[in-house]
Structure formats: structure tokens, C-alpha cells
Amino acid sequence: MNIDKFTITSYDRLMGFDRSTGKLDMILDELSDFTLSHEEEKVDITGKGGRTITSLKKNKKVTGKGTNGMLSGGALAAALGADVENGSYRIRFTDTVAVNANKGVTQKTAVGTAGNEIGTIYVKDSANASLSESRKLVQTSEAPSKSGTFSYNPENNEISFFAGDVENETEVIAFYDTEVDGRKITNDADHYSKTLQVVVDVTCQDGCDNVFHGQFIIDRADFNGTFDIQGGSDPSTLGFEFTSLPNLCTGRSDLWEFIVFDGK
Question: Which of 13, 191, 231, 251 could be joined to 29 by an S-S link, Cβ 3.0–4.6 Å?
Fold first, then answer.
């Protein structure tokens, strides 16, 4: 390999590790772009006649910035100062329920105060098209005894309406809480972005078409907590940024190391 004449042909992955335990906290392997920027402040020292006689160099700074083509839970957690948790969580579910013979069945099991698991149901208009002018039905803990009420049985997810209150084939909308198994990231106002050890794997090629590999090692990467989660017509991507800091615990002032090697 000839590192006097080479190019980085691709950034393959960026990994972040907990600096205390070495545990993998994040991995970005769909990097659409990445830039390692370098700054150095130079102050000119002038002498007779205002001419520059030397310069003082200081405040070297390295920042990493890029975009991953897909969202990453670990990277979001790093930017938020959070952890990715596993467990059972309560979410708000939007359910469209078809009514027949004064009955309907929810897709999920509504949870909450007994007799008020759903609370309110909204009846769509005659064309099943709008909620803006919908009627509201209120849950009761007993069998519905008057118009405008309904009951709910969480044992079989069945909704019972007052007889004749909702015509057959009419759709109603229910918004209720339900329990799901999943993974959670919490944006706590008192927690801030993490400092991780970052390793960036790259593929290189020299002037003689030899392919080899390289690795940037940033021992203290202080992640920026300012970012956007965008969406819409284009798929969501994740922008990230960090600043490299000297490792004061070891007394070293390295901002990064770059190691090239034959990856065969």
C-alpha cells in the first residue's frame, strides 16, 4: 500500500463505544456523507513597520459531521444523552371500528381506569369521511341505557352501543391507551449528549489500484445535541456532529489516530 498517493473511496461505518465499559452504543453503517473538519487558529506577530515576523498557532479543533441514510436508535440516544430501553410501554392507539348490530371490536385491548378505558368515541359522518362534524359517545361502566353512551369489555375487546344509536356499517373512531412490547428512547430535559469513543472504518485505494482499509480512532467524541428528525416526501435520515477532545485522563492530546492496514 502506498499512503503517499491514496484516496478514501468509502466511509463504511461509524461506531460509538462507551468510554468506561467499551460497550457498543451506536453503529451507523449507511453513511451517505461524512466529513472530518480541521481548524487551527493562527495569530500573526508583527514587528517594525507592521510586517509579520512570525505567527502563533493555537486552538486546534477537529469536528466530525455527516448523515446516515437511516435513523439509528443508538445515535439518537447519543445525541440525547439517553439509553435504549427494552420493555412494555403504554402508547396511544387510533382505532377505526366498524359497527354492526350495536357492537364493535377494538383491534387492541384498551387499558386504563375500569369503566373509562376508552372514554369517548367519535362517530363518522354518513359518508364515513370526516370527524370534523362527528357525534361523540361517552363510555359508561354499565350497559348503555341511553343514547350517546357505550360500554367496553376489555376481556374480549367488545364495544356495546345503545340500541339504534349507530347504524350498521358506520365507522367510529376510538383513541385509547394500550400496552405494547418495544424499545424506548426518552428525551430527558436534564440529560445531555454523550461523549463516546468513535471508530470510523474506511476503504482506501492507492495510485496503483491496491485496495486497503483504514480506521480513524477518536478517543473522546463529544456529540452535539442539536439535530433534526425530518420526514415527509423523502425518507428520514439522521444528521450528526461531534467534536474531538483530548483525553485528559491519559494525559494524551491526540485528537485522532488514523491507521491503515491490509484488510484481506
Answer: 13
Distance CA 207, CA 212 (A): 12
Measuring CA to CA, which residue among 30, 16, 11 is closest to residue 79? 16
- The Cα 5–Cα 193 span in angstroms is 38
Q: Provide the strand spans (E) within the chain.
A: 6-17, 24-28, 31-46, 52-68, 85-98, 103-105, 120-123, 135-139, 149-153, 158-161, 171-184, 195-206, 211-223, 238-244, 257-261
Q: Which three cell numbers stand for residue 127?
A: 359518508
Distance CA 157, CA 153 (A): 6
Q: How far is Cα 4 from Cα 161, in angstroms, rounded to an integer?
A: 79
The string of pLDDT tens digits covering residues 91-142 is 999 999 999 999 999 999 999 999 999 999 999 876 656 666 678 999 999 9
At 194-227, the pLDDT tens digits run 999 999 999 999 988 999 999 999 999 999 999 9
Tell me the pLDDT tens digit for each residue of 134-192. Answer: 789 999 999 999 999 999 999 999 999 999 999 898 889 999 999 999 999 999 999 99
- The C-alpha atoms of residue 170 and residue 124 are separated, in whole angstroms, by 7
Amino acid at 238: L
